Amino acid sequence: MYDCTFRVLFWEFRFAQTMIFAVEEINNSSTLLPNISVGYKIFDSCGSTLPSTRAVMGLLNGQERTAEKTCSSHSSVHVIIGASESSSTIVINRKDYPSFFRTIPSDYYQSRALAKLVKYFGWTWVGAVRSDNDYGNNGMATFITAASQEGVCVEYSEAISRTDSSEEVARVIEVIRSGSARVLIAFLAQGEMDILLEEALKQNLTGLQWVGSESWITASHLTTKRYSGILTGSLGFTIRKAKIAGLREFLLQVNPSQDPQNSLLREFWETVFGCSFQSRLPGQIQCSGSEKLEDINNPFTDVSQLRISNNVYKAVYAIAHAMHNLLNCGQSAKLPTLSGEKVYFDENGDPSAMYELVNWQRNQAGDIIFVAVGSYDASLPNEIQLPLSVCSESCPPGFRQAAIKGKPICCFSCIACAAGEIMCLPCPLECWSNEDRSQCVPKVIEFLSFGETMGGLLAAFSLFGASLTLAVSCVFFRLRHTPLVKASNSELSFLLLFSLTLCFLCSLTFIGQPTEWSCMLRHTAFGASFALCMSCILAKTITVVIAFKATRPAKTVPQCSAALQRTSVLSCTLLQLLICVLWLIFAPPFPYKNTVHATEKIILECNLGSPLGFWAVLGYIGLLSLLCFILAFLSRKLPDNFNEAKFITFSMLIFCAVWVTFIPAYVSSPGKFTVAVEIFAILASSFGLFFSIFAPKCYILLVKPERNTKRHMMGRNH
Question: I need a labelling partner for 519 at 20 to 30 A (CA). Which of 263, 385, 422, 599 fits?
Answer without folding.
Answer: 599
